[in-house]
Amino acid sequence: MADNKFDYYLDGKTGKWEVIIGLEVHAQVTSRAKLFSGSSTKFGSDPNTQVSLVDAAMPGMLPVINKFCIEQAVKTGLGLKAKINRFSKFDRKNYFYADLPQGYQISQFKFPIVGEGEIVLDMPYGTKVVGIERLHLEQDAGKSLHDQDPENSFVDLNRSGIALMEIVGKPDLRSPEEVGQYVKKLRSIMRYLNTCDGNMDEGSLRADVNVSVRKQGSQQLGTRCEIKNVNSIKFMQQAIEYEAKRQIDIIEDGGTINQETRLYDTKKNETRSMRSKEDAHDYRYFPDPDLLPLVLDSEFIENIKKTLPELPDEKKHRLMNDFGLSSYDASIIISEKDISDYYEDVAKNSDYKLAANWMIVELFGILNKEGKEIKDSPVSAVNLSKLINLIKNGTISGKIAKTVFEQMVQRNENPEVIIEKSGLKQQSDPKELEIIIDNIIKNNQDKVIEYKSGKIKLFSFFVGQAMKDTAGKGNPQLINNILSKKLK
Ligand code: MN
Questions:
Q1: What's the whole-model pTM score?
Q2: pLDDT value of residue 474
Q3: Measuring CA to CA, which of 189, 282, 341, 343 is 20 to 30 A from 59?
Q4: Which residues have CB atoms below 5 A from the ion given as ligand 1?
């Protein structure tokens, strides 16, 4: 864990440097059909089995907009607290590439569907608000396959025409850690909204990372380089670190940074120049004559607003204000939709605070050790809530609960059954405990005298004896009460 002060500055020969980062995230819209055709978007199908004539850019084919994708983009915009633009337009972004049969990508240039918004990050040094510049809709391209044949490259158009949201962030990020939190938070918001599944290893979420550096304290932005298409948080962080150091070395040696597009080589952990940076005019953007401007009425937007679920930030505040969770615990619970769903299932039948403690300490301990995600949890939410209730109503102590939990991990059994079978039930009969305690007092008169003459530390000795004589099953609260009375 970092200390509670932002301190990501890189050391150069001439002093400390600040790193400025802005992300352009491409997020695949969760939708069964593509943006302008009815073809399926299913992942992992055989090449070119999900390609309509529109996706293959056959002459004379016309795009028809998928209303659901528009709803998803608006929903995402609302989740980012962003301005929804009631008027937007589709443009053609022209470039030549083997996997782009149209020769252009339909995108939104001047008039995106979503304007400025924000994402709040929980950093060890406090919350940080990162600005969103815009969100626009565009088509994905196909995919070139170079590893199928020694002499030929092939093209798979299954991805061609799939709807993407390009989410352009402001250059507000200052460290690899902030970038990690930003991507996680954005992914989490979209998963809560069900607008992008965020599966980075399937290419559903990838980012172009813009990096520049400046001397600590400087207000001017340096020239930036864009690292294309990075598809894991770890790689983004490594690429940023490499790229920032590269730029610092160049500037300190008297050189200048050329604005360019670079790629990150994951095997060598370095960035390499791909091409000098193209500007918007290089793409010869112009309005797509096949598509009318997109005009949304306020009712359409209002109706989407009504379907918004509780989002991570709101949920965090509710857990803190209504249920007394700490900010730390609450931010872990809300960090992933799967974790939050599991938590709700446990807490709705038990105790909110104990549920958080048991998940964060015991359950995550096991999951981390076994390298599992919460959806593969060996303990079901129902069984964990039962365990918590057994602690709460005094059937078992917190200590015994840990033993029971270990057995639950082995075979996800109902804790009530485990306790019954192994006789782990807490001894909570005051009369039985009194007999045991009376015996301890009788057999340790010397200690009783010492205690009464002021050696109050001995109290824990008596508690220890009682726990020993009950084989660890004595109700600690009751033992304390009875001992206090008897030793007065
Ligand atoms: Mn794009």
A1: 0.85
A2: 85
A3: 282
A4: 166
